[in-house]
Design a protein that fits this description.
Helix content: 40-55%
Number of strands: 3
Strand content: 5-15%
Number of domains: 1
Structural class: mainly alpha
C-alpha cells in the first residue's frame, strides 16, 4: 500500500509521524536482527493508560459479581437436574464433602500459574526487557479481567447457578449465596490460561529457533488451566462448559494481546517523493500478512 503526500500536506504528515513515534519504539532499519532481540514494542503512555483505566474498571466491576441477590429457597427448589446437559452433568456427580480440599488445590494451581511468567526473567534477553514485559503482562491480565467482569459472557450479565446449588444434602446457607449465581464462566481458569499462554507466547517470540516445537509449549500451557478447571468442578464451583469457555478466552488473550505489540518498524518506510506533478513524502506500509 503506497500513499503519496503533496507538499502542502507536510504539516499533517509530521503530525501523523510523531503520533506513530509515540505509539511505537523506532529502531534503525539497518539493524536487521533487532526484531529478534526486541520482538515487542511497548508504548508506555498507551499501555500504562490501559493498565490504569483497566485496574479502575476491574475495581468497579467487583461489586457487580460479588454482591448479587441471595438465592431464595423457591429458586433452589425449582432447580431441575434433568435440564443440565450431558457434558455438564458430571459436575452433579461429585462428593460435596471434598469441596474445601479441591478449593485449596485450585488456589495453589492458580497462584503457580499467575507466577509462571516470572520464570521468563531467567533468560538474559528477556531480563533486559523486564519492564516492557511486566507492563504487557499487567495489560494482558487487566484486559482479561475486564472481559470477565464487563462482557456479555461474564457474570455481570449471566446468572448461571453453580453446581453447589443442586446438592440437596448441603445446607441452605451453603447454597443460597449470591455468588453462587456466578458459574458462567470461570474467571479463575481464564486467569490461569492467560498467564500460561502468555508465558508460551513470549518465550516463543524470543526464541524463534524452536520452530514448530512452540506448539508443544502451547500444549504444555494448556495443562495448568485444565488441572485448575478439574479442581473447580470437583469443588462444585463450575460446570465443565464454564471451564472450557474460561480456557478459550484466557488462551486467546494470552496470545493475541502480546501479538499487538509486535508492530515492526521494517513494515514502514519513509522517503521523499518528487515528480512533475507533486513533491512530498512517500509512506509505504506492508503488513506482515502481505509478505
Amino acid at each position: 500500500m503506497v500513499m503519496i503526500i503533496r507538499t502542502h500536506q507536510l504539516k499533517f504528515i509530521f503530525f501523523v509521524f510523531f503520533s506513530v513515534c509515540l505509539g511505537i519504539k523506532v529502531y534503525p532499519q539497518s539493524i536487521a536482527s533487532d526484531s529478534l532481540i526486541h520482538p515487542y514494542h511497548v508504548n508506555y503512555y498507551v499501555t500504562g493508560t490501559i493498565c490504569g483505566v483497566g485496574l479502575l474498571t476491574n475495581y468497579l466491576g467487583i461489586p457487580q459479581t460479588l454482591n448479587k441477590k441471595e438465592i431464595s429457597l423457591i429458586e433452589l427448589q425449582a432447580l431441575d437436574r434433568s435440564s443440565i446437559s450431558g457434558i455438564d452433568y458430571w459436575a452433579l456427580k461429585q462428593d460435596p464433602t471434598k469441596t474445601d480440599a479441591y478449593l485449596t488445590y485450585s488456589n495453589y494451581v492458580l497462584t503457580l500459574s499467575v507466577a509462571l511468567p516470572l520464570a521468563l526473567m531467567l533468560d538474559k534477553r528477556m531480563r533486559r526487557d523486564w519492564y516492557d514485559l511486566l507492563l504487557m503482562y499487567m495489560e494482558t491480565l487487566t484486559i482479561t479481567t475486564n472481559i470477565y467482569e464487563w462482557s456479555f459472557l461474564g457474570p455481570t450479565f449471566q446468572n448461571r447457578f453453580r453446581p453447589v446449588t443442586y446438592y440437596d444434602q448441603l445446607t441452605f446457607n451453603q447454597r443460597n449465596s449470591g455468588g453462587n449465581r456466578n458459574s458462567f464462566y470461570s474467571g479463575h481458569v481464564a486467569t490461569a490460561a492467560v498467564s500460561t499462554f502468555f508465558f508460551a507466547k513470549i518465550y516463543s517470540d524470543y526464541n524463534p529457533d524452536i520452530g514448530n516445537n512452540k506448539y508443544l509449549l502451547y500444549g504444555a500451557a494448556l495443562i495448568p488451566p485444565l488441572v485448575l478447571g478439574y479442581c473447580r468442578v470437583k469443588a462444585l464451583r463450575h460446570f465443565p462448559s464454564d471451564v472450557m469457555v474460561g480456557i478459550g478466552i484466557g488462551a486467546l488473550c494470552g496470545i493475541v494481546i502480546p501479538e499487538f505489540h509486535r508492530f515492526q518498524d521494517n513494515n514502514i518506510s519513509l522517503g521523499l517523493f518528487s515528480s512533475s506533478e507533486a513533491t512530498g513524502i512517500a509512506v509505504r506500509w506492508q503488513p506482515d500478512i502481505l509478505k
